[in-house]
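Convert to structure. Protein one:
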Amino acid sequence: MVRHPFGWTGVPVPVIGLGTWNLERADRAEALAALRQGLDAGLTHIDTAEMYGRGRVEEIVGEAIAGRRDEVFLVSKVLPQNASFAGVLRACDASLRRLETDRLDLYLLHWPGQHPLEQTIAAFEQLVRDGKTRFYGVSNFDVADLERAVALAGAERIACNQVLYHLEERAIEHAVLPWCDRHGIAVVAYSPFGSGDFPSARSPRGRVLAEIAEARGATPRQVALAFLVRRAGVFAIPKAARPAHVRDNAGGGALTLSAEEEARLDRAFPRGRPRRGLPTL
């Protein structure tokens, strides 16, 4: 599995990781097997959140990584309603208990909320000092939000911005992605296959994807992932609740597209015009 430095942190992280949103809906034994097979395949970046299954997904992740914690780049997220100074500290402790670990590698604010961002960042800094997380970051932040966060936290403090990014939703390429690149902030793509609407091979766009995949001996999803992580500093966390899906996703991290293939995909899935706001699910 290809690893790239995770923004300014310099920590080598697999370009393809393991997302866990809605994992509580899967068969538990199969979900555990998928996560463990992901670790075996080198997908050691595991992303979860207190929101997922109201904590149940963190418990699944904790069980999956038992005895293997040191292999994992472990990420969780705090809900905005819990993002006061004291609330962040309580939420992190609860996540650590469910994950059965003493520290995270990265802790994120799930999306901007009503609590003053100064309090959230102060709590994140306290967690770093206490050794409960190595780094902290944000999710679903647009450029204005990012500018404010960096102004409050200082340079090389916000490690990551996790955002919606897939072939048919490339809005972040206009402003958010270049801004993060200039500031050494890693970009992590969630829902990199969309939300249940991955391009069909019967559609004109899907045919391009399928043709490239066939020529490369890959799958369309592997090609899609390779396109999204073509830039250094961009990572993707597709969810896989079955071992077969994990194996497929892992192949996307080993595929490098040619300039011609990237250009074909760029034409087939144009990023469109800039628009106000940041897309979310």
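Protein two, convert as well:
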Amino acid sequence: MELFLSLAFLFSVGSLLGWCIELVARRINHGNWCNPGFLTGPVLPLYGTGLVLMYLTCLLCERVDTGYAWLDAILPVLLIAVAMTVLEYLTGIVLLKGMNLRLWDYTGNFGNVQGVICPLYSFLWTLCGAGYRFLLHGVALRCTDWIAGHAFCWFFLGIFYGVLLVDIASAFQLAAKLRGWAAKSGVVVRYERFKDMLYERAEKGKEKVSFFFVMHAPRHWQETLDAYLKSRQTDDHKTRRKKAPPKDENSDEK
């Protein structure tokens, strides 16, 4: 029971911190504030799951003695890198194949696999694993020990997970609408791009849209879907033109 409470706590903390990290990163990269992720609330479950994996990996590695101090030190980092890459791949593929959605796209990155994972981000996950192993694992242990001794924390975690379940149910309802449209249109929806377009159209229509509830603007859904499809067709046309072999000016015209 104590382990379950600890993991539930770490998942909530990781989800909240991950959302904050993505929020700032998107601000720096794109110059605007955008609610990142699939859900409405300030949580990113991928990061929460990642923190849980890091915690469990380090706990398991503490029971392993390879006989080499340097290997004992880096083994958790390597395992975390592999675990996070696999988690990112599985999450991306489930959304891509099951719901025709992309929450992130590494297509333009070197060595990417289906645009879902790539060496660059696996390296970043390795750095995150090293940071957790050498800087944060001790903090996580102290926090989980404190949580285990304070049963009233169940109340706050219960509220968090209750709201999270409602949020997930609502998000999947919206995703089902997008999936049906994407299947008919034969496209994969880049979720963040669609969200940005929806927000821009709401602003142009002088409609007040909450930062968190931009996906709940049904008045602009259809026109945004039409605009999104048109933009995708334009992008695909440009891509085909770039990939097409250059025309031989000396060839005979028929």
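The first strand starts at residue 101 and ends at 102. The radius of gyration is 22 Å.
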